[in-house]
Prior knowledge:
By secondary structure, this protein is an alpha+beta fold. It has helices spanning 54-69, 87-90, 93-96, 121-130, 169-176, 178-202, 252-259, 274-292, and strands at 15-19, 23-27, 31-36, 41-42, 45-46, 77-79, 100-104, 107-108, 111-118, 132-133, 136-137, 147-153, 156-157, 204-216, 219-223, 232-236. It folds into two domains: 15-105, Phosphorylase Kinase, domain 1; 108-248 and 285-291, D-amino Acid Aminotransferase, Chain A, domain 1, CATH 3.30.470. It contains eight helices and 16 strands. The strands form four sheets. Strands 8, 9, 12, 13, 14, 15 and 16 form a seven-stranded antiparallel sheet that branches. A five-stranded antiparallel sheet has the order 1-2-3-7-6. The chain has a two-stranded antiparallel sheet with strand order 4-5. It is globular and about 60 Å long.
Amino acid sequence: MLNQPVGFTKLEGVKFFKRGKVREIYDLDDKFLMVATDRISCFDVILPTGIPHKGEVLTKLSVFWFGFTEDIIPNHFITDNIRTFPKELQKYEEILKHRSMLVKKVVPIPVECVVRGYLSGSGWKEYQKTQSICGINLPKGLKESDKLPQVIFTPSTKEDIGHDMNVTQDYIEKSIGKDIAQKLKDISISLYKKAAQYAESKGIIIADTKFEFGKIGNEIILIDEVLTPDSSRFWPKDQYETGKPQPSFDKQFVRDYLETLTWDKTPPAPQLPNDIVNKTTQKYLQALKIITEEKL
Length: 296
């Protein structure tokens, strides 16, 4: 029997700051408390059904990747050890354990830094229409799920409400400045390449992923979540077959189910049946085990 999912948190006496699609952030004056709930969003709509243990998997994977990539760029992670949290949080240990971390306060850079190594998702749809993604021309004749000739950076806008919008590098340069835009591109590609090589050695293809960055003074640092099944497409390497959609360890499984319904992808979203919920939980747990060799 799976545990009940954590949908929302309410920490009395702790200053609430912001609620995202999945994460809730509390203001601790000199730092933030970031809590990953078990909410799941698809097509930018939060579903009414939670996925048990999802927030724990997102947190543990992010902590792993923060450590794995800190030679490339610093990050906002401070600790996920509840015993070292401020005293006012100790009474919420049952809610916070395994799904929360203390992070540095930063000024977010409003860009979704998407990196693609394979042709899938919105990139595949765009390629079919224009033979390009975000203004980057690609060779003719590529099939769905093909490995791209080279890793590409395809940024999008960062929207709190509604859909993020794929944009060109030129658009980003005009928005945040050429130097910062180039740094984000170079860092994102470096992060993806290092992580993808490691994951493939473990049997997972990272088809694409997205990173978010912030600034402390003039220093750019990695923030939010990193290389999780929510922010990436994880495919089992031993089942990879070009020319079609791939089985996955990520929420694509839920998207695929929702595509079979008559739902128009606007709120309210439909409830998920128990078998879809259970299978999704198992996919998240499996991704954690394969990448970190750790179980919850």
